[in-house]
Amino acid sequence: MPGNGDTLRSWWRAFRNSVLCHGRLQFFRSVLFCVFVISPVHAADRPVGDLDNDGVVTALDLARQISHASGQMVLPEGEAAYADLNRDGIINSYDSALIIRRILQTDEPAALPLAAVLETSPANGEAGIALTREFTVHFTMPSALDAVFATYNPNTGAPGNLYAEFGGRRLLARAELSSDRRKATLFFLEPLPSSARVRVTFNSAGLKDILGRNVDGDGDAVGGGVKAFDFDTLGITPLTGTGVTGRVFGIDVGTNNALSTRPLAGVTITVDGAEQTLRTTTATDGTFTLTPAPTGRFFVLVDGRTAGGTGGYYAFVGKAWEGIPGRLDTAVTPATADTAPGDIYLPFIPTGTLQPVSATQDTTITFSPSVLAADPALADVQIMVPANSLFADNGARGGRVGIAPVAPARLPEPLPPGLKLPLVITIQTDGATNFDRPVPVRFPNLPDTTTGKKPLPGAKSALVSFNHDTGTWELVGPMTVAADGKFVETDPGVGVRQPGWHGNGPFGSLGGGGAFTMPRRCGGQ
To answer: What spatial distance separates the first Cα and last Cα of the chain, rounded to whole Å?
Structure first.
């Protein structure tokens, strides 16, 4: 007797042949036959790539997947879980290629794995972690609609699903589940201990995914489980006779968006984790010396908001510096073709740049009226902040967001060697520093900095962001030139993950042996 899969395939062939050979009447008869006779496939038997739940992967599933990936339609969450074949958290052309392999039967059908940990930040075993950094777990698919992530409760002693400890003590923290339920973040309510190995434990007991299945917490393909992640924090103990030096400039936008720089006085600089004791301010010529300073790598906040400014304020940025024992003159940044050692540039954010974001609908953010008046060609540059996605470390939702152009030669941190970005923007807020979902971005399609030619419609590019948590530039994910050739837009599921500095560059020069490698959540391995 044929199995369920054989029967479904026979039904599918009959349905397909009736459409091709017997015309419209037979087509509707077949539709009724499929609706009333064919039962949905049990989840345990449903193969990955089967979006219409008929038990087989066909061209109809591929069409639905491509429509979702191109933004023409949105798959329900439960269905979208079957469209993400490589389990990287994003549905795109990588998944389309895998569906084609299933259709051609070059890949064996496989059941949908349980929801599991996709990646963490910091990664397990990562070192050099700032004392103010949070811990984030990304999952391969959304959690259940009623999912609740608890952390350690000091009043009851309940450990929760996600908690951190050091030296036998649970660290005070709070857990936040993103609004798309694809990541959980542990925000620490106290500075992390310095020069310490911190352990974060994820216990998936009681947690369900969007399909109602137990989450695979330890990666053994069985629901439930506990997994620990370790990371090492930086030391911030200052050493007498050790210091770092630099000079801070403000970037002002003039007529036709011409950029001018001037030294900034009154900029506040503080060491993360020792903000009250290790700090300094810039002099009238913009120079500063931070001493005593920690040795080795440490993180700071350079806050231009304290420098004043008429009609706006200067931006703030987190950076990673390095102190050399016994030296007071270590420049905080290397020299480049356009800058001197120690130079830091903060763009001016004009009044009117920051706009309130909505809690109930997506908010489009564009350049301020003064920027657009100077350069109307930037009118369609935008970011789209998802509803209720902006929040502060303390959990407060909402606030204001704005974007401003930044000269690529005047960035807060030099780009990796060989990388040039045609346009860079800074995303600023009135305090909140987190987006709980990726924020889509649209840039103008500008000529390639190497070839001088505009990429053609459909050409791939990549979103590049400055990660304040690591102090480095990182590849975030793919972008595509729009069909009209005017814009470069982030692929569905890709976007800015935190405020700061962002640009786009030629995809081929960024990954595959270039300055970056593709992150796991965007198709990398």
So the answer is: 42
The CATH number of the domain covering residues in 238-349: 2.60.40.1120
Mention the CATH class of domain 352-522. mainly beta
pLDDT at residue 361 in the model = 96
Could you state, in order of their start, the residue ranges of all structural domains in the chain? Answer: 4-103, 117-232, 238-349, 352-522
What's the CA gap between 320 and 234, in Å, rounded? 11
Q: Would the pTM of this model clear 0.70, i.e. be above it?
A: yes
Residue 237's Cβ-side half-sphere holds a number of Cα atoms within 13 Å equal to 5
CA distance 403 to 381: 9
Burial of 369-381, coded b for 16+ CB within 10 Å and e otherwise, reads: ebbbebeeebeeb
Beta pairing class for 355-356 and 400-406: antiparallel
Instruction: Dump the DSSP string for 209-264.
Output: BTTSPBPBSSSSSSSB-EEEEEEEBPP--EETT--EEEEEEEEEE-GGG-EEEEE-
Average pLDDT over residues 302-314: 89
Q: Give φ, ψ of 319 to 5 degrees.
A: -140, 160
Write the pLDDT tens digit of every residue in 156-194. 888 889 999 999 999 999 999 998 999 999 999 999 999
The burial of 247, by beta-carbon neighbours within 10 Å (0-12 exposed, 13-18 middle, 19 or more buried), is given as buried
Residue 514 contacts residue 505 (beta carbons within 8 Å): no
Q: How far apart are CA 397 and CA 63, in angstroms?
A: 37
Report whether 36 contacts 28 (CB < 8 A).
no
Q: Under CATH, what is the fold of the domain 117-232? A: Immunoglobulin-like (2.60.40)
Give yes or no on whether 117-232 and 238-349 have one common fold. yes
Closest alpha carbon to 152 in 79, 88, 202, 102:
202
Split at pLDDT 50, 70, 90, the class of 427 is: very high
Residue 377's pLDDT band (cuts 50, 70, 90): confident
The pair of three-digit structure tokens given for residue 174, joined into one six-digit string: 């709070």
Are 69 and 45 a contacting pair, CB within 8 Å? no
Angle, helices 23-37 vs 4-21, to 10°: value is 160
- Can you tell me whether residue 8 is helix, strand or coil? helix
SS3 339: coil
- CA separation for the pair 179, 181 (Å, rounded): 5
pLDDT digits (tens, 9 = 90+) for 122-136: 999 999 999 999 999
User: What angle is formed at CA 402 by the lines to CA 398 and CA 407, rounded to 5 degrees?
Assistant: 150
